[in-house]
Here is the input.
Amino acid sequence: MTLTSAGDTNREYAFFESAPVAMWEEDFTLVLGYLQELDSADLGVYLQSHPEAVSECMQRIRVVRVNKLGRAFYGSEAQEHTRRFAPLVDPETIDTFRCEVLAFASGLASFEADIATITTTGEKRLVRMNCAMQPTPGAPWSSVIVVFTDITQRHGLEQTLKTSNEALVKLNKDLEQFAYAAAHDLREPLRTISLYTQLLENSYSEHLGPHGRKALQFIRGGATRMERLVWDLLGFAHVLEAPEDSAVGDTDSQAVVPETLVSLEAAIQEAGAEIRVGPLPAVAAESSHVRQLFQNLISNSLKYRDRERALLVTISAQVKYGFVEFVVSDNGEGIRPEYFDKIFQMFQRLHGQEVQGSGIGLALCTRIVELYGGRIWVESEVGTGSKFFFTLPVATGAGQTREGS
Ligand code: ADP
Here is the structure.
């Protein structure tokens, strides 16, 4: 095989020979001659219905030279195997070759496709093929440079990633259905327990004696806690499904927060808390989600307050890099640093039943902010208080700004 031609400069030869990709120079002159002989009015239709003509074109390609990586790709017998291009190409890719011929025939100077090739050792590889027709005065189609980039490994990784992604989406869907069904179906027996406990208390209280009444109290307490847990689980299952992009409108946080404070009015009164709210920008998120975030964080500040001092909760926000960073800050009990991550996990609580809770609230907040590509985290010091930060994308201005509802 001739690896250099008379006109090659040393520089051009060195570039071709040591290029970090497999390269060929091919001569399509005979292919062009064959196509002219066919003299077909519609070459596209003709080649489509005459695969043997495409094969004939393949046989007429002359490989002029192959660089080092090209030879390595096809083994030491490169000369024989690349003399004719056809045997190296998987028969399935004949269609791609037909497109290449048609591209050149219609005047295009370059063509790109992914094809399967077989090395001289019989190994099947997937390559990205880039072909460029070199304009050569007086000798059309005499020089086509072909570059092969081996994408077998990348393709394999992409396939693995795609499969894992599909499995993850399915798992999420299953989890969502499971959580919803579990929570939904658990409510019915709970209602029965509450109803019959109530009946026992009302009608048979004097027959039960102090131990019996205490036992009933425990059953009722357990059922109430379970009901709250089930309720929170249902809320969690509800946000597992990502909102459709087109359905997400802007939400005016400045309007959502006062509304949330109204729904927490009794707890705020009971805690004797002062709540300060700074200017809050609008965000591109569902209003129900924004409300859930504030509802959970403010009610946590109320629940985990330091009973030795008056509670002050401050809500503020600032815009950073396309996101609004909200801060719900309190001067409550505070949290030890080793729990900063743990509290955002499902069912993780640092308190016992002395403070009501299910351990789902912060997991729910995490899920919500992640739906919008945001983050949530805490900074806290025991005895000083906690600052819960979360980010949501700034309002896009598209669609109506929903004020709370
Ligand atoms: P819940 O409040 O239902 O227990 P969360 O997921 O909302 O569940 O919170 C998890 C835990 O994080 C709480 O049990 C509590 O121990 C701790 N925590 C949350 N917010 C605060 C806060 N503002 N101050 C102190 N501890 C907090």
Summary: The chain has a mean pLDDT of 85. The first strand starts at residue 22 and ends at 27. The CA atoms of residues 208 and 215 lie 9 Å apart. The longest helix spans residues 152-239.
